[in-house]
Amino acid sequence: MNPSSADLLYMIQMWLDTRKLSQLGRMLRLPLRKVGNNYLVHSALAELFQDQAPKPFCVEDKHRQINEYDDQNGRQIRTLCYSDLDSESLQKLAQGFASPTVYEIVDWDRIASKPMPDEYPDGMKLGFELRACPVIRKASDGPKWKEGQEVDAFLSRVWEVDDPDIDVDREETYVKWLKRQFENRGGAKLIEANMKRFSLERMSRRNHSPDRKVKMIKRPDVTLTGKLEVIDNDAFKQLLNKGIGRHKSFGYGMLKIRRA
Predict the structure, then answer these.
(1) Measured at the alpha carbon of residue 115, what is the angle toward residues 7 and 45, in degrees to the nearest 5?
(2) Which terminus of the chain faces fewer neighbouring Cβ atoms within 10 Å, N or C?
(3) Helix (H) or strand (E) holding 10
(4) What is the domain class of 125-259 according to CATH?
(5) Coil, strand or helix: which one is 31?
(6) Confidence band (pLDDT; 50, 70, 90) for 42?
(7) What is the DSSP letter of 109?
(8) What pLDDT, on a 0 to 100 scale, did the predictor assign at position 204?
(9) Separation CA 201–CA 205 (nearest Å)
(10) H or E element at residue 259
(11) What is the three-class DSSP state of 110?
């Protein structure tokens, strides 16, 4: 039986104008020298599509920093995302509700979408790439942390070991974090993985005060690649749809798959 359009998941590719993203940042009174690309794209998607904004998403040109002096016409960054809506439906949504300034951020002539497969047979092996923010929330107070505190998974492990003579391997720690994500979410099991890239990135979050000030925090930004095996079709599709880990609305957690 063919899936209905409501059941489909689409991969969307869109190109966003950096000059207009910078303009949006100024409109929202964001400190552009501190705010990263992920937050600007997050803000643009929210303004374009409101509560139907695609997530998870991934900014492909993540090393190009947009700033207040970015006034070059024609510069664009590529963003991939998963969405329940195809590119035509997303454009109609933006046409109906986004402001003209925000609408023009997207190069609508270049937007593209494809339906993702409806079936992933059990035992199917796939390659993957994931840009993730591997953090955990501490369940209770400890000597160096508080209950509920969000902590880098690597730093958490270092604190738990609490022995300078024991070398805690960062890559191994993040791979174990990913393995637990698969085990907890279901749908796939991890066959192998390695850390392709790591950095500590500044993340921008608005607080809940009346003036909605932007708070800067540092979190691990890790790209993991490897191979997985599908063990449940429906759960795996949910894994793609919902993403992996924390901060999925801010450019993390999109599981990009390919043939093994």
Answers:
(1) 85
(2) N
(3) strand 10-17
(4) alpha beta
(5) coil
(6) very high
(7) T
(8) 64
(9) 13
(10) strand 255-259
(11) coil
